[in-house]
Amino acid sequence: MEPLPPPETRIRQVTALFEGLADTYDTSDTAFSGPVGAELVRRLAPQAGERAVDLGCARGAVTFPLAEAVGAEGHVDALDLAPSMVELTAGEAQQRGASQVEVVLGDAVEPPLEESSYDVLASSLLLFFLPEPDVALTAWRRLVRPGGRAGFTTFGAWPPAWQAVLDVFDDHARRTGRRSMTQAPEVDEDQEVTDFLTGAGWSDVEHATLTHDLVFDDLDHWRRWSLTTWLTDVWMRSPVEEHPEILDRVGEVLEGTRGDDGRLHLHLVVRYTLARP
Ligand SMILES: C[S@@+](CC[C@H](N)C(=O)[O-])C[C@H]1O[C@@H](n2cnc3c(N)ncnc32)[C@H](O)[C@@H]1O
Q: How far, in Å, CA of 202 to CA of 141, rounded?
């Protein structure tokens, strides 16, 4: 396996991945960011007039529910490192007439935002793409004013069918020795997330885990969906000429998930974590 590149290179690679995905990110009819973002915001319960920040906003799965909750009197800063994500989400804010939303280009590890200025900080499905989550979490704590709150989502342990799909990709990636551009974006144990947060000075850490049912009509539906998500990175690790074989093997795994409705069901486990600065 290639050695791990330095943090700056990894941040650049992750940015390139999401820059390439910006147009289609999670636009499939099997969306997952939207329901996850809405649930995170529901748990954070932002109030009208509050100031909120969304770190790693992508296409606004968290930003827009936050904007709705804080209303026209509130304010939402949304930050992303991929310029096209910023441009498209800013355009969408304008189209929605959400003038309380400001979308900013920047690195969440060193956020170019005012300290102690937010009531609510949110970051969905970003933390474990960062090469140094502990450094980011320390910077994020400084953004929240005393008495404020933060919410994060991370992937939980992969259920057996997911693990089997990822094992197929790993098997083919082993032949190229190519590393994932993203860090393994899952942390199996709640305690590991708690330790990261408390190590960065956060307190009152609480977790809840929900399982989201991702439903696909058939294997090609799954394939098209995977290419609108971070799984593009997983595809890119394996040689293109092996993709048909990978798809066949994934198809065999997904066959085992077929429900009474005749469709394929992959369960995605998401951890919702709340904390105070
Ligand atoms: C998996 S996506 C999740 C996005 C969004 N929160 C959602 O739930 O749809 C991760 C996003 O974080 C952005 N990102 C990755 N590393 C970043 C960093 N260091 N600073 C800011 N944004 C980053 C990517 O460009 C991408 O848009």
A: 7
